[in-house]
Amino acid sequence: MPEGDTVWRQARSLHKALAGRTAHSTSFRYPDVAEVDFSGKHIHGALARGKHLLLRIDDFTVHSHLKMDGIWHIYGVDDNGNPQRWKRPASAARAIINANARQDANGQLVPGSTPVSAVGFTLGLLEIFPTTEENERLGYLGPDLLGADWNPQLALNNLLAQPERLIGPALLDQKNLMGIGTIFRAETLFLAGVDPRSQVGAVPDLARVIEIAHLLLTANRMRPRRVTRTEREPLWCYGRRGRPCYRCGSFIIKDELSDLGTGAKRFGTDRYAQTEETVSRISFRCPTCQVLYI
Hints:
Belongs to the FPG family. The chain is α+β, with helices and mostly antiparallel strands. About 20% of the residues lie in helices and about 20% in strands. Strands 1-6-7-5 form a four-stranded antiparallel β-sheet, with helices on one face. The longest helix has 15 residues. The radius of gyration is 21 Å and the shape is elongated. About 0% of the residues have low confidence.
């Protein structure tokens, strides 16, 4: 699943390509929004809120979430002036926004400007609502690690509200803080020296864990390739199951971790009734460098 840095770059690309243009035509291929038409409407721009992408057109917000496989592409014209070919099949397109060439304050075409298209493929969520409802609809989310209004104290308070919860699942809960996925969770906790199975309230310096996550996402938001260590060996822990730890040489362990623990325990007592607490995600850890706090 794309993490906060990826969504931030997607929003930045959309904003750069579309802000200030007028929509020529739009197509939304989700049942609840299929009849929405923004033709002729002004495009204000795009921004990210954690893993959520908001595109503002006229008085409305097009809200999308990439989930596992979603992505937005920007297409212009080729050397012959024809629209560029899409890199993914049309059947995977869920949102299409065709924008006119840019115009100046007098309504004249800006020299060199050409039409562009923004296409959202395999979007996990797509909805449209008045922009005035953004805070109401997304207010349940925690502070955004890459947001201009990032609030580390609020993130800390949110996490400590459930001190008995495991730190691994707690960091993925976007209601606590936005932007962390399984990769940044593994790297953050490795660098903090904290086992992901530790209880939140037992972690001795939780503020440092939050600070490391913020530093990692900020450092990677402009990079096309995610790096927490070196360009040659980009990640400390994630994806390195069975390989020696760069620091101590112990073999990295891969778990399936939920709020209830690892192994069979992660399912709870009723494996047929999956709840938020029993949803498991892959987790990586060093058994030596990362301390289990309980």
